[in-house]
Amino acid sequence: MIAPEKLRGTGVALITPFTSDGQVDIKSLNKLVNDVITNQVDFLVALGTTAEAVTLSTEEKHLVMQTIITANNGRVPLVMGMGSNSTQQLVTAIKQHDFTGIDALLSVTPFYNKPNQEGLYLHFCQVAEASPLPVILYNVPGRTGTNLEADTTIQLAKNFKNIIAIKEASGDFIQIMDLIKKRPEGFLVLSGDDATTFPLVTLGGDGVISVIANAFPLEFSQMVHDVLNGNLMKSKAMHFRFTDIIKNLFIEGNPAGIKALLNIKGMVDNTLRSPLVPVSPETYLKLKEQMTVFYQ
């Protein structure tokens, strides 16, 4: 079982590239995996929100995972997203899955049905009991409609040794500080939001699961490594270089912005699965201009 410290630093929430006719683009995905690993990301996250996983068929998810596992070849830890608003269906899927080549699970809070804290606790109890791998909780109230409160997270972390981290995307720094202050030893608090990575890590957090690291793996990883190593001035300067890009990256939703950036870099087609669509020409142009300025 992977040690939690192996998941400190920068994880990248990989996109799923599509060809212009809407098929999974295996060649571009392989290229992307190699690029982010070469450029110093610490771990990979597959089949999350950024991967448009909810639009992929079972066969496509298997294809994506096998492509990433082969391209990674064990070089960095690999985390797989598995979540559902049906606890029973998720537990069954976990028990039936072959996790060869996968190091941990990222499991989002149940969405749409909006359970209370007891419901969330019991959901993740069953996930932890079913999982043969370490589990990273994923709290993103803006997408799920429910918030995993700090006390519930801490209770889960204390009661289940294989619940090793949380990807925290609430944006609530009172909650984030409670998590960092009350967590058991070894439990990781990871930012789920690129814009809040620097302040979260300066408060004692452990890193990020990042969207922008698809396009800026070296620079974003260096920022995170610098702040973890106490080089605050250098990391703060890099943080402020990113803030305007991040604003436009998410202004029309994720992963529309990051696919636009990767298209600007010539790495993928600017293709998304319905109901998502590419960013507007205006946002695309802003991102292109900002990328040019960033590298000047």
Keywords:
296 residues, TIM Barrel, eight-stranded parallel beta barrel, 12 helices
Mean of all residue-level pLDDT scores: 97
Biggest beta-sheet profile? 8 strands, parallel, barrel
Content-based structural category: alpha/beta
Q: How many strand elements?
A: 8
For CATH, the homologous superfamily is named as Aldolase class I
Unreliable segments of 5+ consecutive residues: none
Query: Radius of gyration from the CA trace?
Result: 18 Å
How many domains is the backbone divided into? 1
Name given to the CATH architecture = Alpha-Beta Barrel
Number of helices: 12
Strand order of the largest sheet: 1-2-3-4-5-6-7-8
Q: Give the helix level as a range of percent.
A: 40-55%
How is this fold's topology laid out?
Blueprint lengths: L8 E5 L12 H13 L4 E4 L11 H15 L5 E4 L5 H10 L7 E5 L8 H14 L4 E5 L1 H4 L5 H10 L3 E6 L4 H10 L5 E4 L5 H6 L4 E4 L6 H12 L3 H19 L5 H9 L16 H14 L2
Parallel strand pairs: 1-2, 1-8, 2-3, 3-4, 4-5, 5-6, 6-7, 7-8
Task: Write up what this structure looks like.
The protein is of the alpha/beta class and 296 residues long. The protein has a single domain, classed as TIM Barrel (Alpha-Beta Barrel). The chain is built from twelve helices and eight strands. The protein has helices at 26-38, 58-72, 87-96, 117-130, 141-144, 150-159, 173-182, 197-202, 217-228, 232-250, 256-264, 281-294, and strands at residues 9-13, 43-46, 78-81, 104-108, 135-139, 163-168, 188-191, 207-210. It has an eight-stranded parallel barrel, surrounded by six helices. The protein is globular, with a radius of gyration of 18 Å. The mean pLDDT is 97.
